Each structure stands twice: as C-alpha cells, then as structure tokens.
Amino acid sequence: MGRAIKAGAVYFLLLYVIGFLLGATRELLLAPRFGVVVASALEALPMLAAIFHFAPLIARRFGIPPKSGGRIVMGLAGLAFLIGAEIAMTRAMRGLSPQEWLAHFASVEGAIYAALLAAFAAMPWVRR
Question: Using CA atoms in the order 83, 86, 92, 96, what is the torsion angle rounded to 10 degrees?
Fold first, then answer.
C-alpha cells in the first residue's frame, strides 16, 4: 500500500506540473482567442494523452502489478493529492472557496475537467 501511495504522489506531481503549464497556455493564449469552453477542450486533449502515457509508466516504475488493488490506490491517492492542490491553488490564486471550486463543475468547462479527473483516477488501473 505504501508503494501505491508513493506512486500516486509521483503521478500527481508529474501530471500537476504538466496541467499547470497547459492551464497557463489555456488561460493566456487559448481562452482569449477561442473562449473558455473551446480552450478547455483543447487543453484536455494533451492532458488526456499525458495521463494515458504516464499512468502505466509510473505504476510499473513502482512495481505495482496491472489490474491490482495497488493500481486503484495509486489512482485514488493521486486524485486526493490533486484535489487538495487544486483547492489550495484556486484559493491562493483566485480567492475561491472550496464550495466555489465545486460549483465550477456545473459549467461545460467544469464537466470537461471532471472527465479528466475521472480519467486521471482510473488510468493506472485501466492501462497496463
């Protein structure tokens, strides 16, 4: 279980950095030109590719067998770290409360983000 949580932490850190860079691109370049929804969809494609690519690599690096409970723990631990970081960052950068952060999921771009979160949590188990 400890290896799976460590793998989840590494998975979170790597994808969070990638997501932060893609998010900056979305906010600074894409959203002003194409709108928030299109920008979110454009950001989601490389983010999903990164999730798809790195989930099994990290799991294998930590020796977590495919289709095991360890893969589920890795995904859920990574998701817990990610949600905590997202809430903290939106609080620090935008002044949003956790309730306001949750309300974001009612929008189209929030639904896109929710789908990415689900993929992030599931991918270590889904991919070998």
Answer: -80
**Contact (Cβ atoms closer than 8 angstroms) between residue 115 and residue 43:** no
> How confident is the model over 1-60, as pLDDT tens digits?
899 999 999 999 999 999 999 999 999 999 999 999 999 999 999 999 999 999 999 999
Q: Which of 2, 3, 5 is nearest to 80 (CA)?
A: 5
How is 16-53 classified by DSSP, letter by letter? HHHHHHHHHHIIIIIHHHH-HHHHHHHHHHHHHHHHHH
H or E segment at 63? Answer: none
d(CA 48, CA 5): 21
- The CA distance from 83 to 65, in Å, is 25
pTM for the whole structure: 0.92
Is 2 exposed, middle or buried (CB count within 10 Å of its CB: 0-12, 13-18, 19+)?
exposed
Cα–Cα distance between 20 and 26 in angstroms, integer? 10
